[in-house]
Amino acid sequence: MSEVAMPDENSKPNRLVMFISLMMALPLAAVLLVHPALMLDDNGHYSHRTMMLIMIGISGGFIYGVGFIPKFWLWKWLFSPFIAWPLMSLGYFTWLFT
Questions:
Q1: Other CB atoms closer than 10 Å to residue 19's CB: what's the count?
Q2: Which residue ranges does UniProt annotate as crossing the membrane (predicted)?
Q3: How many CA atoms lie within 13 A of 89 on its CB side?
Q4: Three-class DSSP category at 14
Q5: What would the DSSP string read from start to end of 39-55?
Q6: What would the pLDDT profile of 39-78 be if each residue is shown by its tens digit?
Q7: Which comes out higher in pLDDT, residue 39 or 20?
Q8: Which residues have CB under 8 Å from 5's CB, separation 6+?
Q9: Could you give the CA distance from residue 45 to residue 57 in angstroms, rounded to a whole number?
Q10: Alpha-carbon distance 69 to 77, whole Å?
């Protein structure tokens, strides 16, 4: 019974998804480190709520992109591509279209 409930420890994440996650996280992290003013809104202010979500997405992109898979279910869910990709997409939208 416990074999069904426990995930297979030998399962590897998809390398293409890992590569996409890492490649999405790198430019956003570089923009936030080198020229964070590109993330300002129309009024010249940061939206701290949005920036927090974008940084969680970047963290998830790096964590999954390097192949690290957390064991605790909450961290595994939070740093998965299902959460990280939409949050990083929000970052790209903020960077490129505002």
A1: 11
A2: 16-38, 50-69, 75-97
A3: 7
A4: coil
A5: G--TTS---HHHHHHHH
A6: 887 788 888 899 999 999 999 999 999 999 899 999 999 9
A7: 20
A8: none
A9: 21
A10: 10
Which residues fall within 8 angstroms of residue 10, CB to CB, at 6 or more apart?
none
Would you kindly state where each structural domain of the chain is located, as residue ranges? 13-97
What average pLDDT score do residues 5-14 get?
A: 64
Q: Tokens representing 38?
A: 């590109």
Structure tokens at 41: 């809104």
pLDDT (0 to 100) of residue 68: 92
What does DSSP assign to residue 10?
Answer: T
C-alpha to C-alpha distances, 42 to 27, 56, 65, 83, nearest whole angstrom: 22, 23, 32, 27
Q: How far apart are CA 57 and CA 48, in angstroms?
A: 14
The values of phi and psi at residue 62, to 5°, are: -70, -45
Query: Is the CB of residue 89 less than 8 Å from the CB of residue 53?
Result: no
pTM score, two decimals? 0.84
Q: What is the crossing angle of helices 15-34 and 48-65, to 10°?
A: 140
